[in-house]
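Please, structure for the following, as tokens.
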Amino acid sequence: MAKTSGEFEQEFIQTAKEKTGKTVEQWYPVVKASGLSKQMEITNWLKAEHKMNHLQAQLLAGLFLNNGKPVYQNENALLDNQFAKSENMRPLFEAVSEKILTLFPDTQLIPKKTYLSYTAAREFAAINIKPAEIRLGMDLGDMAFDETVQKTKLSGPMPRISHMAVITDIKQFDKKLSGLLQLSYNRTHKK
């Protein structure tokens, strides 16, 4: 079973010195001195200037921006926070999520700070909840964009989530969309 975001975060906090040369507490003044204040700016800077991998940089940036407190302590709260400005989208999200989890029974829904991740061995789908739509991101590589999928505008997931489908009605979750999800799943589970 895939690790939760909370487990990754706790592991990073406990092993940061061993893996990065400094404890998370020792990193905070370094990050502060950079003058950067946005998650992706800090993440990219830590990767470029301090040779951290993406997960390490992302976790440290999140901890720094959360005043040193763990971001992923309560995953139920992370899920509920996705609906803070769009509670009306919860029934549609639950219907979409049920379809994904039924199609891919080995998948785990992992709430993140800014998005919802669908992960089996690796993340193959991601959702952003918007006030009037659900954005379903997928890893479709260099597939052409069309009336079903467009260039992703999701916040949070890895750059390999390249395409997104905008869902405003569960009827849009048709055979074509199921097939695209299958392609994304297959791409992330290559041997």
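Residues 79 and 152 are 21 Å apart (CA to CA). The chain has two domains: 5-65, 75-188.
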